[in-house]
Amino acid sequence: MRIFDPHIHMTSRTTDDYERMAAAGVRAVVEPAFWLGQPRTSAASFTDYFDSLIGWEPFRAGQFGVRHFATIALNPKEANDPRCRPVLDLLPRYLDKDAVVAVGEIGYDSMTPEEDEAFAAQLALAVAYDLPALVHTPHRDKARGCERTLAVVAESGIDAGRVVVDHLNEVTVKLVRESGCWLGFSIYPDTKMTPQRMVELLREYGTDRMLVNSAADWGRSDPLLTRATGEAMLAAGFSDDDVDRVLWRNPVEFYGQSGRLDLSDLEDPAAVDPQTGNSILRGGS
Ligand SMILES: [Zn+2]
User: Fold this and answer.
1) CA of 7 to the centre of ligand 1 (A)
2) Fewer Cβ close by (within 10 Å): the C or N end of the chain?
3) What pLDDT digit, counting tens, does each position of 113-128 carry?
4) Distance from the CA of 186 to the center of ligand 1, in angstroms?
5) Interval between CA 263 and ligand 1 midpoint (Å)
């Protein structure tokens, strides 16, 4: 089973995790910039964090044979802190980097006017830099948060096929399905989704545009729940090809839209263009 975890915060994880992930089939990850739990007190603190997401962390992952990419943004929670707002001016420098495959995590935490503003400004950056966007949905008041998220996405003019709306569940799946956006599901040990509930949603809605992640971070979470979901799919009668689609080809297609997802030597050699030798996936159509 080859696995691409499209949302995991490896900065908060240990080398034991990398070892176990590699052994379980995780070959590539995307690490979105997020809130570190301890509030930051200045924009400079983000500079060091972003640098480590495109420098130190890919190096650390590489030691375990895991390819590491990042998404960069001012996260929804800290969009409310005036000390952090200048981060918006730092983003263009990072959105030009090859290791950055999307703008994210953006979206809503408490749905404040400050969050509105940061969300819209960063969707505009995604359009300007021709990058996909990773959108976090609030954990409280999910249905309303999701509706408002989709309205802001539609208003921004970004192509829905270049947006993943994440942390979905049974309450929000249908709305996002109809919007044309990609659907992200975070499988957690005791909150959000479980492997079994995920299998039910895949049965009902199919495997198209579905992304499964562990969203493992500094809280109680488990980087192997992607694998557990693959196992649960097989046990429920899904084929190896279905599992490969959800756990590998879908994230590759979504982030491949950045034009920066270099998976050479990880992908099947047959996928390399024999004319150019180019295996950088440009995704989509
Ligand atoms: Zn996250």
Assistant:
1) 6
2) C
3) 999 999 999 999 999 9
4) 9
5) 23
Residue ranges with strand state E in 63-181: 67-72, 100-107, 133-136, 163-166
C-alpha 81 to ligand 1 mean position (Å): 19
* CB crowding 253-262: b at 16 or more within 10 Å, else e: bbbbbbebbb
SS3 sequence of 31-72 = EECCCCCCCCCCHHHHHHHHHHHHCHHHHHHHCCCCEEEEEE
What's the pLDDT tens digit per position in 170-211? 999 999 999 999 999 999 998 779 999 999 999 999 999 999
Interhelix angle 43-54/87-95, rounded to 10 degrees, is 20
Q: Which two tokens stand for residue 89?
A: 């001016």
Residue 25: exposed, middle, or buried by beta-carbon count in 10 A (0-12, 13-18, 19+)? middle
Q: Residue 105 C-alpha to ligand 1 middle, in angstroms?
A: 7
pTM confidence score: 0.92
In the reported structure, the alpha carbon of residue 193 is separated from the centroid of ligand 1 by a whole-number distance in angstroms of 14
Residue 240 clears pLDDT 90, i.e. is over it: yes
According to the model, what pLDDT value does residue 281 have?
A: 52
Q: How far is the CA of 109 from the centre of ligand 1 (A)?
A: 12
Closest alpha carbon to 91 in 31, 131, 40: 131
- Span 222-244, average pLDDT: 98
Place of tokens 């908060």: 12
DSSP tag of 76: T
CA of 136 to the centre of ligand 1 (A): 7
Q: How far is the CA of 9 from the centre of ligand 1 (A)?
A: 7
What phi and psi values does residue 220 have, to the nearest 5 degrees? -70, 115
The tokens of 261 are what? Answer: 């997802």
